[in-house]
Amino acid sequence: MDNPEGGNGKSLLLIGIDFYKDMIQMDGKAWKDNDNTQHPRQWVRWSADRKSAMGVSWEDDTVLGAFDDFYYYGWNSDGDALLPKPLAGLKVSKVNEAKQTSASMLSQTDWYVTRKSEANTAIPSGITETHHR
To answer: What is the largest CA-CA distance in the chain?
Structure first.
C-alpha cells in the first residue's frame, strides 16, 4: 500500500517496527535504502517530516485482547484469531484437575470411613451428606 504519510515509497506497518519501502527497520538499527545509502541507527530521532520524505513510517505496538492461556496458545501472526490448544490435551488436563480436586476434598474426611470399618464408629451425618453431594 502507498505510504499514508505521503512519502515516496510503500509502507507496511507492523507492531513496533518502522518500514521503508517494504523493508523492516528496527528501532535503533542502521539501515540502507534502495540507493544503497547508509542511514544511522539514530534515524528514529528524525523529524516526522524527514521520515515521511524518506518513506519511513511508524505504528505503535498493537494491543491484542486478553485470552485464556489454558485454552489458547495466543494470537496468530495477523492478530485476528486465537490459536486453540488441542482438545484431547485439554480434556486430559481437566480430568486430572477434577481428580486432584476430589482427592483433596475427600482426604480431609476419609479417615472417618477408615474408623468406621475398623472400629465400627458411626460417621457423623454432616460428613456423609458432604460425601453424597
So the answer is: 94
DSSP three-state, residue 24: strand
CB burial class (10 A; 0-12, 13-18, 19+) of residue 20? buried
| CA angle, 32 then 39 then 53, to 5° | 95
d(CA 120, CA 60): 72
Distance CA(6)–CA(1), nearest Å, equals 11
Task: Compute the distance between CA of residue 55 and CA of residue 3 in angstroms, rounded to an integer.
Answer: 7
Distance CA 45, CA 42 (A): 6
Per residue in 32-68, pLDDT (tens digit) is 777 788 878 887 788 888 877 777 776 666 678 888 9
pTM over 0.85: no
Tell me if residue 117 falls in helix, strand or coil.
Answer: helix
Residue 61 near residue 15 (C-beta atoms within 8 A): yes
Instruction: Give the Å distances, CA to CA, from 5 to 12, 54, 64, 93.
Output: 12, 10, 25, 50
